[in-house]
Design brief:
binds zinc ion, 16 helices, alpha/beta, binds 3-methyl-2-oxobutanoic acid, three-stranded antiparallel sheet, eight-stranded parallel barrel, 21% strand
Length: 522
């Protein structure tokens, strides 16, 4: 049987890390990723040692199907999983998508709580029971690695839950995932639920139990760890805790909690934690979702010591105020990197150190932008280079590009902007005014690329300190095709704003080209 229960020579129990950034994470409004970005994320997850990658929901759209299939084809070590509802079309599509994988899994689910049965499915207990069994059996025709989830398990009647879990295992499910779909449970309750299932379901020893906790009450990581203490041996999680609404349990937090608190959590994972910061930055870049400064493990301030007493303590012995080293999560200490005399070779090495692996064209473009930046900015830091690379990754497939921008701003309005864009290989220019320079820039772009989207968010932050710092701008647009976020970086805030707006428009266009079956979203 091909399952993700990796062998280990250690005395500690292995916890299967099931990453669902590309599925549950991508469901987060505004966090959609392109095909190429998904491949990049999957490749990094595989390299860092994640056991299972939930690559997408193949029935949702042709784009989702293609990306799951390509990830299945290219991933080397991890199990590649596709999600399916409890119906034949979903399962067959997921089975088809994971077919090229060396190790493929189908994850099928159905709502089991009274609310889900009555209002969402309009099915009674027995009908849900039959569908669950039939879906697991059908999935087993494609792979012997089948995961089954009773959606909204934490609000499902216990007797019924035990009965349906037993039937799913009998039908061939090898992993039983217990979702706290709405993030309602507390750690004690979640612990009790996993314990109850393992003790009461007669064939519980034939499957691995798994946690899937949402963060609506900020308890996702605590609940996941409680589930593990109760006997679960798989945690479903996402990088940066991305996911529906308030998100899922953050992968970096569960992995570092297990690693740091081995004294009371005697488990191990196969994740190489030195990749965590890089993974966080990649996800933040491709989704354009900033990581909050005080985010555990990967936030900019996670290892910053501000107060004098703390700094004094850390200098004498880092352990006085640090429970993990920055290096253990991939934070490099030599932040000051290069200047205008640095050459191509040093730049390539720096990118390697930062964990980026760009193709020749992307490398050349980023190098040119680095030289340009180094001419304008005295010190170029790691963060500056990461912002440039982020821009390059985000815009690699763009069909609308900024050629030039000039703005007249100041106290004597009106503020005006003149812009030239390259749209599908042809240059177009226009000028116009607005209520302030950013408004002028956005108005002119809208005149050149008409659209119905509304601006949901405009946010600027400085990549580093200093008045010559690069500005990093995020722009979120909402249209009938959903929400997208774009990001742009430049020492000139208005150029960064134009780039971010164009990046969002490019994403919106790419999204419109995909046939997105909204009804299929779990
Ligand atoms: O939260 C949830 O219940 C899910 C299921 C599809 C497992 O994401
Ligand atoms: Zn979920």
């Amino acid at each position: 049987m091909t399952t993700a229960s990796t062998n280990t020579t250690s005395h500690k129990d292995h916890i299967v890390i099931f990453d669902t950034t590309l599925r549950d994470g991508e469901q987060c409004p505004g966090a959609s990723m392109t095909f190429e970005e998904k491949l990049q994320v999957a490749s990094l997850l595989d390299e860092m040692g994640v056991d299972v990658i939930e690559a997408g929901f193949p029935i949702a759209s042709d784009g989702d199907f293609e990306s799951v299939r390509e990830i299945a084809r290219t991933v080397k070590s991890a199990v590649v999983c596709g999600l399916a509802r409890a119906n034949p079309n979903d399962i067959d599509r997921a089975g088809e998508a994971i077919r090229p994988a060396a190790r493929g899994r189908i994850h099928t689910f159905i709502g089991t709580s009274p609310l889900h049965r009555q209002f969402q499915l309009q099915l009674d207990q027995e009908q849900v029971f039959e569908r669950a069994v039939a879906s697991v059996k059908r999935a087993r025709n494609f792979t012997d690695d089948v995961e089954w989830s009773p959606m909204d398990a934490t609000r499902t009647e216990h007797d019924y839950l035990c009965r349906i879990v037993e039937a799913a295992i009998d039908a061939g499910a090898t992993t039983i995932n217990i979702p706290d779909t709405v993030g309602y449970a507390t750690p004690e309750e979640y612990y009790e639920l996993i314990r109850l299932l393992i003790e009461r379901v007669p064939n519980a020893d034939k499957a691995i139990f798994s946690t899937h906790c949402h963060d609506d009450l900020g308890l996702a990581v605590a609940n996941s760890l409680a589930g593990v203490r109760a006997g679960a041996r798989q945690i479903e999680c996402t990088i940066n805790g991305l996911g529906e609404r308030a998100g899922n349990a953050a992968l970096e937090e569960v992995v570092m909690a297990i690693r740091t608190r081995g004294d009371i959590l005697p488990y191990e994972t196969s994740v190489d934690t030195t990749h965590l910061m890089r993974a966080s930055k990649l996800i933040s870049t491709v989704t354009s979702f900033p990581v909050q400064y005080n985010k555990a493990i990967v936030g900019r301030n996670a290892f910053a010591h501000e107060s004098g007493i703390h700094q004094d303590g850390v200098l004498k012995n880092a352990q006085t105020y640090e429970i993990m080293t920055p290096e253990s999560v991939g934070v490099s200490k030599n932040a000051l990197v290069m200047g205008k005399h640095s050459g191509r070779h040093a730049f390539r090495e720096k990118l390697k150190d930062l964990g980026f692996n760009l193709g020749e064209n992307a490398l050349e473009d980023t190098f040119k932008r680095f030289k340009d930046l180094a001419d304008r900015k005295k010190d170029v830091y790691d963060e500056d280079i990461e912002a440039l690379v982020g821009d390059e990754i985000l815009t690699a497939q763009d069909r609308i590009r900024l050629v030039s921008l000039s703005v007249v701003a100041g106290t004597s309005g009106p503020q005006t902007a003149a812009i030239t864009l390259d749209i599908d290989g042809a240059e177009h220019e226009a000028e116009g005014e607005g209520n302030g320079p950013v408004d002028a820039v956005f108005n002119v772009i809208k005149a050149l690329v008409p659209h119905d989207a509304t601006l949901e968010l405009y946010q600027v932050h400085a990549v580093t300190g200093g008045t010559d710092a690069q500005a990093e701008v995020s722009v979120r647009l909402k249209s009938d095709n959903g929400e997208v976020t774009g990001r742009g970086a430049d020492p000139d805030t208005l150029v960064a704003s134009a780039r971010a707006y164009l990046s969002a428009l490019n994403r919106l266009r790419a999204r419109g080209a995909r046939t997105h079956a909204h009804a299929a979203t779990p």
